[in-house]
Specification:
alpha+beta; Aminopeptidase; three-stranded antiparallel β-sheet; GNAT_dom
Length: about 170
């Protein structure tokens, strides 16, 4: 578990299902990453996230408001094995997604900064990477604030993306 001034980051549990399913069903949240998910799709993805921790000792953190316990979103690192062209290498892929209610409050930067620090301290990868839709200006700005730089422009599921990585 990680705590920041305003947030708690912890691995997902099955108790997070309702909040997670609501987030990934929100068209505003997923507009740059696909279509809203059904409850079944959210359940399977949540189970994948929970299991990933047991295999790799890292993964995506559920991000909660430290005072209220309200679910705000997620951030962390996984190897999604995305079928992009050109292929991503095996360095950890950073990810962040936040509920509509959490947008514009600085939670994503606070949480992602804490997750990057944790990853560096516990796993020390030589670098990390992320892919972002070119239309997702908020995520591009966040990636730049986290130290990511444009590296390539891969194609994923027919869409051109920005591939950024840390130095």
């Amino acid at each position: 578990m990680i705590q920041t001034e305003r947030l708690t980051l912890r691995p997902y549990t099955v108790a997070d299902y309702d909040a997670y399913a609501a987030m990934v069903a929100d068209p505003v949240v997923v507009r740059h990453a696909g279509t809203p998910m059904t409850g079944e799709e959210a359940w399977m993805r949540l189970l994948r996230f929970i299991g990933y921790w047991s295999v790799f000792s890292h993964g995506l953190f559920a991000v909660l408001n430290r005072k209220t316990g309200q679910y705000l979103g997620e951030t962390g690192f996984m190897d999604f094995r995305r079928e992009v062209t050109p292929r991503l290498n095996t360095m950890p892929e950073a990810a962040w997604v936040f509920t509509s209610a959490a947008h514009g409050k600085g939670y994503a930067f606070e949480a992602a900064t804490a997750a990057h620090r944790w990853m560096d301290e516990h796993h020390a990868p030589p670098a990390t990477q992320c892919i972002i839709s070119p239309a997702n200006l908020e995520s591009i700005r966040l990636a730049e604030r986290l130290g990511y730089v444009l590296h390539d422009r891969p194609t994923y599921r027919g869409e051109a993306l920005r591939f950024v990585r840390t130095r």
